[in-house]
Structure formats: C-alpha cells, structure tokens
Amino acid sequence: MLAAAVQACSVVIHWLCALLTRQNPLEMKRVKVVVVGAGVVGSSTAVCIAETLTNCSVTLMGDRFTPDTTSDIAAGILICAPFPDIPLERQQKWFKDTIDHLLTIAQSEEASDAGVLLSSGWQLHKSVPVDKKPFWSEFVLGFRTMTDQELKRFPNHKFGQAFTTVKCECSNYLPWLEKRFRKAGGQVVKQKVNNLQELSTQGYDVIVNCSGLGAKTLVEDSQVYPVRGQVLKVHAPWLQHFIRDGEGQSYIYPGMHSVTIGGTRQADDWRLEPDPGDSQNILERCSRLEPSLRRARVLGVSVGLRPSRKNVRLERELLLLGGRQVDVVHNYGHGGWGVTLSWGTALEALSLVRQCLYQRPPSSRL
Amino acid sequence: MLRLSRNTSRGRLQRDAIGFLSLACSTPLQPGDAIVRQLANQSNSELKHSDMRVAVIGAGVSGLSTAQSIFEQYHSLIIPLTIEVYADRFTPLTTSDGAAGFWQPYLYDKGNVQETKWCKETFDYLLSFLRSPDSIKMGIFLQSGYNLCSESAPDPSFKDSVLGFRTLTERELELFPGYSYGWFNTALMVEGKTYLPWLMDWLRERGVKFYQRKIESFKELVDSGVDIIINCTGVRSGDLQFDPELTPGRGQILKVQAPWLKHWIITHSFTAGTYNAPYIIPGSQSVVVGGCFQIGNWSEQNNSEDHQRIWEAACKLEPSLKHAQIVEDWTGLRPVRSKVRLVRESMQSGQSKFEVIHNYGHGGFGLTIHRGCAQEAARLFGEILELKDWVPKSSL
C-alpha cells in the first residue's frame, strides 16, 4: 500500500514538473538505472526500485543468475552477527525490515512459490555468552533462553536460545523475485560487467552495485574477501528444528526438500570445489548435535564464497565515468548475512537512489 | 539352553538340588549339564501353573505396547511366558496408523490426573530415545507448534510435560488472525506407521506370535487354554463386552504435501469441542490436515462435505496450504470414553475362571498415553500373578 501511495505521488510530481518546465511529460527522459549482481541483494534491490520508482527504467544485470549465484547455496536462515562499525540501530532496521517482509510472504498463499517458511529451533553455546541477547532478538518470534530440560539433549552445551525465525530458500525466492521484477517493468540482462565505465557508455544514469564478491575487481575494493562455506544437503525429513552452534561453526537447517548441514568458514579461500575432508568433518560435528543425522542419506555437497567485508558497504557516490556524471549506490559486502539483510539493505539502497534522483537537474528528475 | 527361573518356587528347588550335587561333585555343575536338565524336569512335574499363555486382543498401539511392557517385566520371572497377539487389523490398517502421531493430550484432563501422569510418562519414555540414531526407526522426532484459542484460557494439563512451554507473544498471534490467545511448545511426534512395525519387530524377535483373526468372545480364547487376556480392542471393545461409555469419535483427515510447514497448529474452539476445529500437523512424509470429531458416527467412509469443510478451515488458518497437493483422505474412529478403561476383571466361562485386563478407550490420545497405560497394565498383570501365586510377592 505504501508503494502505491509513493507511486501516485511520483506521478503527480512528474506532471507538475512537466507543467512548470513546459515540457511534454511523456517525452521527459526516463532515468536509466542498472542493478549489477543478480544474487539475493541485487534482486531484492532491483525489485524495490522497479516497484517504487516507476518512472525509472530498471535493468538487472549479472553474469550469473539463479541457480548459479552464491545466494542459491545459502540455507537462507535469518540470523546474523553485527558489523563492528555500523550503528546498531541501522543494522536492526535492516534485520527487522527483512524479517517483516518475509513473514508477510510466509503467511500468504505465495509462501511455497517464494520458498519462504517459518523455522523454529535452538542456538547453542558451550559457555554462557557475555551478550545473552543478539541485537535482533526482538525481531524474531518468541525469543527466550532455553530451559534446563531442553538443554539436556545437548550435553556439550551450557546455554542456549530458542526462537522462531524465517528460512528463505533462494532457489525459489530468486525466481519469485525475478517474476515480480518483470511484472514491475524491469529488464533482465545476462552480461558480465568488467568496470563501471562500460555501464556509463551504455547510457545508465544510476548504477546500483550489488556485485558481492565481484566488487573486489569491479570497483577495486581490497576490503572484500571470500569466506568459503561448504554445505551438505541431506535427506532427513523428520528434522523440524534448526540447530546452530554458537558462532555458526556447525548448523543444521531443515528446509522444504532437504536439510542443509554445515559448515566451514575459511577466509581468503577461493576454492569452489567440495573438499571431502570438510564433508566428513561437517557430518561428524552435526551428528554430535543431532544423532539421527547418522542415518541420513547425503544428497549433495556445495560450496559458496561469502562476499565478506569488515562492514557492509551501503552508500552513494557521484563518479565521473567516461565523461558523464553517474550516481553509484553501493550495496555489497554482506558476508554470510545476505539473505538475512537483503530486503532491509535493498530498501535503504532504494532511498539512496531516490536521493540521487532528487539531486538531479529538473529535466531528468524522476 | 535351559534357563533357571530366578525367583520362582521351582527355581529355588532347582538351585537347592544343584547346590547339593555341586558340593558332592568335584567340578561345579553348569546349567547345560544333563543332570541339571533332568532335575528341572522333575521339578516341573511337582509344580503347577509354571508356564503361562497370555493373549492380547488388538494390535493397535495399546495392544502392542502392552505386550511389550508385559514381556519386559515378566519374561524372566515366568518361564515360559507365551504371548500371542490376536487382531483382525494389523499395521498399517489400525486406527493408530491413520492418526497423525502427534503427542498431545486434550487441553484439560477434567480431574483425570492419572491420565495426565500416564501421558507424561509416555512423553518422557519417547524422549529418552532421541539421543539414539534408532529414534528414526521408531518414528519418533521433536516438533514445535502452536495451540490457538479465540479467547484467553487456563494453561493446559500438559504444560509441565512438554518442552519450552510458553504463552504466545503478540507478534506470534498476528500470524493467526482470528485467534487472540495461545501457547507455543516443543512436543513429540510418534508416527504409527513406523512405530507399530517397530513394535511388532521388537515383539517378534522375542518370540511373540501374531494371529490375524477376529476374536468373537473371551471364551474362545479361554477354551483354547489362554490364562490371561489383555483387551486392547479400542473402538470395537463393545463387540466383546457391552460398554455404554464407549462410543466412536469419528475423525476424517486429509493428507497433503506441504513440505514448507514445520510446525503443528492446533486450534481450539470451546463451542465446537475438541478436534472439531481445524488442525494442521506436519509429519515426516506428509502433512495431516483435520478438524473433525463426530461422536456416535460409525462410518469409516470418507465424506466429501467433511473434506470441504476441513480444507476450507485449514486454508483460512494457513493460507500457504492453497498450493499444497492433496494426496488422500482417511477416516478413523477414535475409541472415545469418559475415561480410559484400565482395570482388571475376574471372569468366568463355564467352569473356567480367567482374568482380563482391559486397556481401551483412549479417545484421541492413544499414542500420547500408550506407554503409561501399558506399564499400568503390566502392573495389573503383576497383581494377578500375586493373587494366583504364580510369583511370590517378594519378587515383584
């Protein structure tokens, strides 16, 4: 409903501008926006822009699309750790916006199409943590400390938290987002972008950089580095709860069609091939948490490189590219929290794009 | 190999004789030695009622688990202990098979604290298997979910039995428009279609025999030499012995494919009555959708009007079901009774006196209460043995 109201306002303003500048409103130049990167962050950002800024033409551009993005490997459970240098309220808003958006989908008829489901479970700690409540604890459902009776099942752990969060499976969610994007008039282009100049040459006015790990070369950001994650998909349909060990070393995430177990966190490791030693190790660690996994059939193994950065980069800059002034909004470096922060950072990226447009000369505004 | 009875009178005779002979011989005697066997046979003829035939009627969860409890507690005290299970329906065709397999008693026990205790005993028993990888073979796993009410209500009788019991938060209630109160907890699933075959294998491995036939009367079994009858005939107990308090509580369920659902959702309407309000219970293979409890209805046929009503109510409760594929319907008759009949009864047929232990009338909570009741039935079995002097009081 909010999107519709904004849409109505922007149309009115467009016509008013046209009247003031004595231009035919229908001939006013549409702002060309390109979103680079078609993972969960790029796709979410593209949808937000296309649905809200209806007088922009929006293109989603990437060299890889679902099911070949990093997001497709992710289990998609909404949990995260804080970035050290970003105000907590801002991160909280990102988390809250994302979970609220996904909860609405989970309670709708679209839930199964979109791959969104409620997931309850336990986060376990071997010793009592200093911070007993993560910064997002009030945004998930029913967050509480585990009872002694509940902890009995996990003899190696002294403390735990129980809550209900959302699981968002990108192999369904990304195609669902793409449908929404196209419905809002968006264009999808499969193309590898080597540098931002190319995009300026192609006539784009605003570049939204959601290139994830690709930002390392695309915008020469040396702070970006991969954190390799290997996961196994197993057949264990009797598992209904997630179990996560403290810092996320080991986790069990039941999904729609399989259970994802993991993981590894290997910084600066670019290997995309599965490592059999890692698989063995993951099975062993997870079976200790959940003994019934010893009876589970392994369906497959995958590897993803988390696009990590000390802090996510979500900001705008004005660049001179190929003789043109081009607005660039960066939205990358989400590490292992891409799905978790996707909608919230997309909304903030949208507001940054809007700012860019308001600061343009009148003829090309909106 | 000859096994010596540990605590029976016959056992004591055997040991006394062997002890004397051992003293007389230079090498100690072993149970397998021929002379020991001879002694045991001699002791047999001096005692009566040393072996026993127990017939369990009914192969649902109550019959099978009672057979298990009796075997567990008495197989080393009574030798030989012959246990036979008679039923016209075996898994996967029993009422226990069709049920979702969700552990939860009715919200309130209405003073039947014994039943609450048996349900808790069952929960604790099933929970103890969870650390074993074999829990899958038994069909046991944990699942959390929501009990929803349209108005605030007292805490349910099972709040201390389950894990992590708490009231629902405002945000959680927003997920369920139309419901303003409720609880969240983690409970157990025990799926009949897996649990019953596991029980049968367990019993078969221990020499229990199964016979597929409908028993028409207790007399039939007594005439064939059965000593004690365990009556676990569920909703059709009335065929063997008239019981005005027993009535069917017809339930129809839809089995659907909705693998994105990981929580059970049970709604409660204090006007419509227990289980006449929609419920959704995901399982390991499919999701059970229900909300039908018709007292006095004996029809085991699926009804299309019930199907429609159940489906519409469930989709309203959980909109994502709209895209679920409906696999099939199933109808079962809950063996409803004001309270569970779990007592022993001395009966007579002609000149023969025999004992019956009744264990039926578990309504919609058979799987939920089965172990507690089976253990109680085994305790009643022990009472019978004491009375009949099969086993001295001190050994129980």
UniProtKB/TrEMBL annotation, chain A:
BP GO terms, sorted: D-amino acid catabolic process; L-aspartate catabolic process
InterPro entries in the record: D-amino_acid_oxidase_CS, DAO, FAD-dep_OxRdtase
Residues annotated as binding FAD: D63, R64, T70, S71, V193, G335, G336, W337, G338, V339, T340
Role played: Selectively catalyzes the oxidative deamination of acidic amino acids. Suppresses the level of D-aspartate in the brain, an amino acid that can act as an agonist for glutamate receptors. Protects the organism from the toxicity of D-amino acids. May also function in the intestine.
Keywords on record: FAD, Flavoprotein, Oxidoreductase, Peroxisome
Binding site for D-dopa: Y251, R306, G336
Cofactors (names): FAD
Record-given protein name: D-aspartate oxidase
Molecular-function GO terms, alphabetical: D-aspartate oxidase activity; FAD binding
Cell compartment(s), UniProt: Peroxisome matrix
Segments crossing the lipid bilayer: none
Enzyme class: oxidoreductase
Family (UniProt): Belongs to the DAMOX/DASOX family.
One Pfam family linked to the record: DAO
Catalytic activity: D-glutamate + O2 + H2O = 2-oxoglutarate + H2O2 + NH4(+); D-aspartate + O2 + H2O = oxaloacetate + H2O2 + NH4(+)
Enzyme Commission code(s) on record: 1.4.3.1
Ranges where the FAD dependent oxidoreductase domain occurs: 32-347
Superkingdom: Eukaryota
Source organism: Esox lucius (Northern pike)
Annotated Gene Ontology cellular component terms: peroxisomal matrix
Keyword Ligase tagged: no
